[in-house]
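Two proteins follow. First one:
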Amino acid sequence: MNDERLMSILIAPHVSEKSTRIADGSNQITFRVRVDARKPEIHRAVEKMFNVEVETVSVLNVKGKNKGFRGRNRGRRSDWRKAYVRLKPGHDIDFIGPVG
């Protein structure tokens, strides 16, 4: 697997109330990933980009919502994929960086 593909697997960290709760409680980070990404690719991408050791990866597909605009136009948001990455004990990803 080439490095270019690995660098394009992770789109962004997914920040929500649930992902924050999971990050605090069980050392898991949530990422928005490419729709065609597989678990081993996500595993390698996180380890390569953040210099951490990954324990497990769980993936789920999020279906896009149907949206209506005042009854006239109907639209649909696109489907996307979410990955829950559990890090090994002693490893952590700091998105903010040093404060101060």
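Second one, unrelated to the first:
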Amino acid sequence: MTALNSTEQSVLDQIEQAPMLDRTMAWAKINSGTKNLQGLAAMAQQLGDAFSALPGEVELVQPDPVETMEPDGTIQQLNRGRHLVTTVRPGAPVQLLFTGHMDTVFPAESDFQELHWREDNILNGPGVADMKGGIAVMLHALMAVESSAAKDRIGYQIMINSDEEVGSGSSAALIARLAQGKTAALTYEPALPDGTLAGARGGSGNYSIKIGGRNAHAGRNPRDGRNAIVAAADLALRLKALMRDGLSVNPAKIDGGGANNVVPDHAILRINFRPEHPRDQQEAEEALERACAAIALEHEVTVQPHGGFGRPPKPLSEGAEKLFGLVKRSGADLGLDIGWRATGGVCDGNNIADCGIPVVDTMGVRGDAIHSADEILIVDSLAERARLSALTVLRLAEGAL
């Protein structure tokens, strides 16, 4: 293990676990499911107060408009919470981006609202790992860095959005703006229980495809109808047939139809694509366009896709490999064996990488069973991961990339 220099050791000595645990527990008691605007507002207020400890400007940014296709085919606007942005030393020579999310997958009416100790080091609760513990790690790492003269060499922006769990539709443009000009980015999704990080990630695209047919009486004149349900089912099968190594296709739901004696004139196909590489995404987009055109022609229906690839694939770039290497070396100097592997999951790291910025997106706590009532935080990873972040940031300030 390489000895830490005196500056690094002094910064790491500032990090204590108890305040991070207190913050995590307090934040986890606030239900901030993506649709719970009241809970998100309360969470944003708490975060604004907490991040005001940093020497920068804290603001709440209005969400961009987000649309959804309802089962009847109409387009409706969704309401999202405001996003927190903190800006520190925008004129410093090294500029970094730190991101997290305040929303969870647990709605206001969820039965999973309480915290429970499973063991002395295992805390069960909504969002304790994903990612209220991660936000605490980010904040306390940066507070420790601010205790050092090295801070003057770095500036940074922090973005904590309100809609990551549903694809960051109202914050994607904000992420892209903040990523511009940054040397590197760290995102605070949870690592695996053993500390393994997510490396390359696949992408994700979600579509709602509206099929317009023609009603007719199912007994008297069925041939005059154009069955939208049949056309949607045919489209689902054709798109499913695209599935191969590097591209997962999941037709998830068909809305529409009505009485058994009426040829249905309306259907909505919901479908998810998971491309491994950008070329797989391009092939999926082209195949979707061809399939929609073929269905429209052969079934004599209208076909209107709505949606897109909100999470581009995230292959490991040369810059990302260097950043992972820096995190690994920093971990080794702390006695940690940091590894990473590819995953099919997606997060804001996909969007950051698509801007050409090196990113490690699992710098948060070690945890498990996220998105379930069994979600846990491994408590001693709070201090462990805050020290890892602080050391990585100090070395970025020294020009490690």
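SUMMARY FIELD: The mean pLDDT is 97. The CA atoms of residues 365 and 382 lie 6 Å apart.
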